[in-house]
Write a structure and sequence with these properties.
Shape: globular
Bound molecules: aspartic acid
Number of strands: 0
Structural class: mainly alpha
Number of helices: 18
CATH topology: Proton glutamate symport protein
């Protein structure tokens, strides 16, 4: 009897696309001579259009989805006391995991000594972009949008979160009186979710083109003098993702960490290829709901918040970069300097937007706090893209783990879904 052919799931397809895309990019960079067909038609033509077209489709979903899902999520949590409790718990988790992340990074950096014996002349330098420091009062005031429509139009995530939270709380308070608006937002949210599913069907093609173009542009040559620094970042990211998060998950929920990683892997692959936490929000909310069992009323609020303020992977890169640049420039850092780095990198993580490359800009804040030269950033700029891809995958895993713990403790978790007894959508099955 002929065996029925099993259809490949989205997870497998995304991973195949990632691997084949990276290989294809490296081959194009190293083995195919420059020509119009390679450069103009393939890399900057086909790969660029399909990859960025896909990215834009995902980005298109973010603002309306975040607004509707936070408003509906807050409305369904109902009372402000529970909402406050969930919010505070989530923020504390986010801050603590970020502080752990930098500590892991500093420790790995101290063991590996990535900057010792570095021949700085072999490293190509670029002009660093420096973050403008904003005062704490300004940062706090900036949370309040003076014009919410402007915040939506500009995609200012923190302002959108604040505004939609207030709308949600009022929806709950006024109840029946605003039923129509509540229903409208909730149905619009469903439309956005359906759109996410539709866009995800083309994800493997988008992922292939994005990774192929990235690797075709960077190749491997630039990496060689930086291998130790990169290795440090990768090891620290690995420890955070597979040891720290999985321990936290096990201790706080008792859930099987391997199962969690398996189910969440496509979201990590997606974040890797896009380098953007923001673009990953829709897929992350959907996966947590459909495959892991987290109720949407929690994830719709904590995931956009995490994508905006919780960047553990970015903090890790910044921690290793501090050690690397201090050693490369022969600057000694003492214990108090390390404490300062932990504090400023945690703050920098809040200030880093969930889009490609911003972690490198906020790194200047961290360097300035301990007197490291900002020119140090120029050393690592050339190879940052690959690290950005990897740290973004860790950034969004951190958000998902904290969300799962908070949902579990709040009884907003469906263990049957996690144990595969229920799966609502065949795309995610
Ligand atoms: N690309 C990162 C993210 O979106 C931010 C960064 O570290 O540059 O999460």
């Amino acid at each position: 009897m002929q065996k029925k052919q099993k259809k490949l799931g989205l997870t497998t397809k995304i991973f195949i696309a990632l691997i084949v895309g990276s290989l294809c990019g490296v081959i194009l960079h190293s083995y195919i001579p420059a020509s119009d067909i390679r450069d103009k038609f393939l890399i900057e033509g086909l790969f660029y259009i399909v990859g960025n077209g896909f990215l834009r489709l995902m980005q298109m979903l973010v603002v309306p989805l975040v607004f509707c899902s936070i408003a509906c999520g807050a409305a369904s949590i109902g009372d402000t006391k529970t909402l406050g409790k969930v919010g505070i718990k989530t923020i504390v988790f986010y801050l603590v995991t970020t502080a752990i992340a930098i500590t892991v990074a500093l420790s790995v950096g101290k063991v590996l000594n990535p900057g010792i014996g570095l021949d700085m002349s072999s490293i190509q330098k670029a002009e660093p972009t420096i973050a403008e420091a904003t005062t704490l009062t300004e940062t706090l005031l900036n949370l309040i949008p003076t014009n919410p429509l402007n915040a939506l139009a500009e995609g200012n995530m923190l302002q959108i979160i604040i505004f939609s939270l207030i709308v949600g709380v009022i929806l709950a308070k006024l109840g029946k009186k605003v039923e129509v608006v509540h229903k409208f937002l909730s149905q619009f949210n469903d439309i956005m979710m359906e759109m996410t599913m539709m866009v995800m069907r083309v994800a493997p093609y988008g992922v292939f083109c994005l990774t192929a173009r990235t690797f075709a542009n960077i190749g491997f040559d630039a990496f060689i003098p930086m291998l130790k620094y990169m290795l440090g970042v990768f090891i620290a990211l690995g420890v955070q993702c597979f040891v720290v998060y999985m321990l936290l998950l096990k201790v706080f929920t008792g859930l099987n960490p391997i199962k969690f990683i398996k189910k969440f892997a496509p979201v990590m692959g997606f974040a890797f290829s896009t380098s953007s936490s923001n673009s990953t929000i829709p897929l992350s909310i959907e996966t947590l709901n459909e495959k892991i069992g987290v109720s949407k009323r929690i994830s719709s609020f904590t995931i956009p918040l995490g994508a905006t303020i919780n960047m553990d992977g970015t903090a890790i890169m910044q921690g290793v970069a501090v050690i690397f640049v201090a050693q490369a420039f022969g600057i000694n850092l003492d214990f108090m300097d390390y404490i300062t780095v932990i504090a400023t990198a945690t703050m920098a993580s809040i200030g880093t937007a969930g889009v490609p490359g911003v972690g490198l800009i906020t790194l200047s804040m961290v360097f300035a706090s301990v007197g490291l030269p900002v020119e140090g950033i120029a050393l690592i700029m050339g190879i940052d893209r690959i690290l950005d891809m990897t740290r973004t995958a860790v950034n969004i895993t951190g958000d998902a783990v904290c969300t799962t713990i908070v949902a579990y403790q709040n009884n907003d978790f469906n263990t049957d879904v996690f144990n595969d007894k229920e799966c609502k959508d065949e795309l995610f099955a």
